[in-house]
Amino acid sequence: ILNVEQSPQSLHVQEGDSTNFTCSFPSSNFYALHWYRWETAKSPEALFVMTLNGDEKKKGRISATLNTKEGYSYLYIKGSQPEDSATYLCAFMEYGNKLVFGAGTILRVKS
Amino acid sequence: EAQVTQNPRYLITVTGKKLTVTCSQNMNHEYMSWYRQDPGLGLRQIYYSMNVEVTDKGDVPEGYKVSRKEKRNFPLILESPSPNQTSLYFCASSWQYSNQPQHFGDGTRLSIL
Lengths: 111, 113
Fold this sequence. Notes:
The structure holds two protein chains of two kinds. By secondary structure, chain A is an all-beta fold. Helix content of chain A is 0%, strand content 57%. In chain A, β4 and β5 form a beta hairpin. Chain A starts with a strand and ends with a strand. Chain B starts with a strand and ends with a strand. In chain B, β5 (42-51) and β6 (54-57) form a beta hairpin. By secondary structure, chain B is mainly beta.
């Protein structure tokens, strides 16, 4: 079974702080790397899908980078707000299109 | 409205009583998938389907069956449910290409007594 690891497991920050999380995945058979935001009592919503080494994506205050050669991706949140509180999931898609999720990073932003 | 619809949303049942969780999408997506979510384990893929009549096992397929007879529907079947299948289940769909995100349904919470 493929191993996708996310760190840290949880994070508590103050409003206005910038923060980042890490997703580590196998560097072989890479097809795509997905990031999702999952709020309590809702379903996961897509943030980014990245397919190329060196990819950088941005949506508002959230951005992500991808290094397929070493098998990691970073998600950055600039100036965290209470509404950013959620679980952030990454998922590795290998050739053959099986999708493997990490356990997630829980972010809590205090106002 | 583009959506993935799962039914039922909640179900409490007993060991051994066959059940089906339906999943339907209206976006003409080729790729559909089922996941279960358990505390501390994240989302684990049960089965996925690249298109009609094409299904493949994910990481935790034991005890589950699926079928893909129509593009829009991807039901999850538990032939003989057991308590270890108590979980939160999500169905998702996407276009078949790798750069497309998954669209998730609202989830089905199953309790097997």
